[in-house]
Write a structure and sequence with these properties.
single chain, mainly beta
Length: 116
């Protein structure tokens, strides 16, 4: 098992999808925020560091709101360089590997308790 906070107790954890979570813990009497958003593929790390906060994860989970972000990229099409603006979904409460029930409990897809 991986120790994300090096033995420091976790204050708050918000998990949205596999590999998309935010951890809030206290280090040296200072509140520290650690985010991992590997699940949002195609979103630049600079965007996740500057724009996404722990409160965004909580809002996404409890209010069931997807958040979108825009970023500028340089791409090459047919040996011609273009500057483009991309709009993508960065945080989403809808897990593609689990079935979410009304009371925030989940079941695996094709579970026998899930009615068709």
């Amino acid at each position: 098992m991986k120790d994300e906070t090096l033995g420091i107790p976790i204050q708050e954890f918000v998990g949205l999808r596999p590999k998309m979570y935010s951890i809030l813990y206290t280090e040296n009497s200072k509140l520290v925020e650690k985010k991992t958003a590997k699940g949002s593929k195609g979103i630049e790390k600079s965007v996740t560091k500057k724009k996404i906060r722990h409160d965004n994860y909580k809002t996404c989970l409890f209010d069931k709101k997807q958040t979108k972000t825009s970023m500028n990229k340089i791409r090459s099409y047919g040996h011609e360089i273009h500057s483009i603006k991309l709009n993508k979904i960065d945080l989403s409460p809808y897990d593609d590997k689990r079935f979410i029930l009304e009371d925030d409990h989940t079941l695996a897809h094709r579970h026998y308790k899930i009615s068709k």
